[in-house]
Amino acid sequence: MASIHQFDVVVVGAGGAGLMAGLYASRGAKTAVISKLYPTRSHTGAAQGGISAALGNYEEDKPEWHTYDTVKGSDYLGDQDAIEFMCNEAIDAVLELEHMGLPFDRTPEGRISQRPFGGHTNNVTGKPVRRAAHAADRTGHMILQTLYQQCLKNKVTFYDEYQVLDFLIVNGKAAGVVAVELSTGELHTFHAKAVIFATGGHGRIFEVTSNAYAYTGDGAAILLHRGLPLEDMEFFQFHPTGIYKLGILITEGVRGEGGILINGLGERFMPRYAPTVKDLASRDVISRAIYTEIREGRGVNGRNYVYLDVRPESVIKYAALDGRTNPDGTPYTITGEQVLAKLPDIIDFCRVYLGVDPITQMMPIQPTAHYTMGGIPTNKFGEVVSDSKNTVFPGLYAAGECACVSVHGANRLGTNSLLDLVVFGKHAGIKAAEYAKQVDFEKLPLDAEAGARSQFEAFRNGSGKENAFDISTEMKKVMFDEVGIYRTGAIMESAIDKVHELKERFKHVRVTDTGKIFNTELLNAWELGNMLDVAELVAVCALNRTESRGGHTREDYPERDDVNWLKHTLAWKQDGKVKIDYKPVVITKYQPKARVY
Amino acid sequence: MQVTLKVFRYNPEVDGKFRYETYTLEAEETDRILDLLEHVKGYHDGTLSFRRSCAHGVCGSDAMRINGRNMLACKALVRDVGDKITVEPLLGLKVTKDLIVDMEPFFDNYKKILPFFINDSPLPADGKERLQSPEQRARFDDSTKCILCAACTTSCPSFWASDDYFGPAALVTAHRFIFDSRDQAASERMHIVAETSGLARCHTAYNCTLACPREIPITKAIGELKMATLTGKLD
Fold first, then answer.
1. pTM (two decimals)
2. Does B11 lie at the interface with A, CB-CB under 8 angstroms?
3. Among all residues of A, which ones are annotated catalytic?
4. pLDDT of B64-97, one tens digit each?
5. What is the full DSSP assignment across A80-127?
6. Do A212 and B59 touch (CB under 8 A)?
7. I need a surface site. Which of A257, A516, A564, B103 has the fewest CB within 10 A?
8. Which of A139, A140, A129 has its CA nearest to residue A69?
């Protein structure tokens, strides 16, 4: 007997965006939050350095500067109405988190402490501004905990460890989702008026990544399978400082506190690439600089990594050279104890995984696949739009990393992801609840579970001559090596061929676990299918965009091309092929100009 | 190097009782135990089940017993645990399958201590943040690091004896709010943790502190709660 649950609003995913959506939707509608993990395991918890808002707690700052920095950071591909909206909401969003109890670090006056972050500047001087509100180097952890706690306080209904497999569309409107309960293997239909996807990104398609195992692009893939487009999938952020080989994130906050990048010659190289803000340039700029250093033979010991140096003596030396000062005008200094207090998790990661103590040694780092700029197209209210005319899909919402509003455009600024998920999670929740009040439930299809069931059955019937882990490993390698930081047409064509080959081989995968209880083999195979579909889109869209912009760097098209490419990509999967269309970028106040840091 | 990985196996759909399976693997000293488990799942036995997500010690999914001690599989390296490795599920929670335990009693205990910020007084007139000095903030800093992995609670003999003991993780969360100068429900929480299911069951075995992958001084935090219930003071 099928299990059917009925809610006005169903939220898929329980990271920051999903929890915020759940919190707000539940105030006006009967709401359930469904997550494949326990909510506190979500990847928001891995965010480290801060959440940006022009609070101005240390120095002058304003939302207009935050807006401009974000537009510039996006390499002018971000929609300026949405960016302005987000940056204006930022101050209230951060204060709301504080009012919910979030334990931000404090200024001597007892206000929320802020640190500099890449690309965030005083628009008059061009110098870095302290805009990132932080709780040590676990800001995301504190946001996740605080929002989960507030959801408990407000008695939000959770379905923990349920994997959503399918999205139900009836009469062109959202009608619910189908999920598998991991502990029993039973399918459940969630009949809903409105569905909010907040399922995170897909960084696990790359070999070296800071992303959790859970980051397999499920939400994006589910909607793609149901005929919806994805936006700007060619834009993926490679964070400059991942732990060498492992990809574990080392927050930009390290550089915010004065850390610098050093090449194999012992030379600080960022001033050559970004003369004004140097080591606090935006992430795409720094990741390219690191790769350029490595390719020109200035990696450490001829290998593909460089150093991040936060030893107090180095920080003090370069701060003096840069003329960096404290808020009171005195020269900037730092001690080993202060580094430990401000960045305890980073110190811990380096000690555990590298056997390196950052107080006395430099950290070996390399760029790591970090953030999905593209995703499910939405407007600034979190409503999913389904074509180049921004036609709203009734009852469907998306927020957080899985969504593409687009506020990040071609390159996201650090700290704007946490802001994004709080602001747009909230608005998606509000909008979904409003919508649910106005409409009736669509009638469920006769066999709502059919789509979900058939997806699983395929894995039981494969020939078994292919191994899912091999396919996964090969996909991650080809995507990282050939559709990574530097891209060229011919190489990407071969990468696409490879992905197609892997997709063919994937049909031969057979799941050996025939059980129902926590069949993680089945779940992982299903996730791999999502990753292959998303990877194909990333590669095809990257090949299609014949320019360089933000995180998308084409060696065969090294210039930004505003005449032909100042537009968003929309990509559908139709009859086994990728179909591409475009929609215009919203430009309000800031005309595109050359991007210099 | 070669390692032997002995893994606790139990699938209630097939097995009458648990068993151990031993795998011989090639490994690097810097491999995480989680990497070894992934390898086994990929190439030796796809049915092996365990939880994992972030793979770097911040999400709390993969707490398990490794050579008898509670650790996160993603934070324990081969060089830390040696080449003979035994991996078992957490103690004190029912095994659902292989290394996966039923977390519900753990989260139920967490929910009992009002694990959310409570302050119903009006917001500051300027609409800005509630002020808190750096010293006040530091008072509960360690307790904010908890990732609810359950390594502490499932290392506690009192919890093994009875899962209606809230356990160290819930008490750490109580500490996080009770010592937050902005929170107003300290007395209510103090009343809860002073119940028979609370502080009285802590016999300072210290296992929790040793097990915590976030290096939270848990026994100290519980001691501070005990002191506060005795003195009625929070400083």
1. 0.97
2. yes
3. 283
4. 999 999 999 999 999 999 999 999 999 999 999 9
5. HHHHHHHHHHHHHHHHHHHHTT----B-TTSSB-EEEEEEEE-TTT--
6. yes
7. A564
8. A129
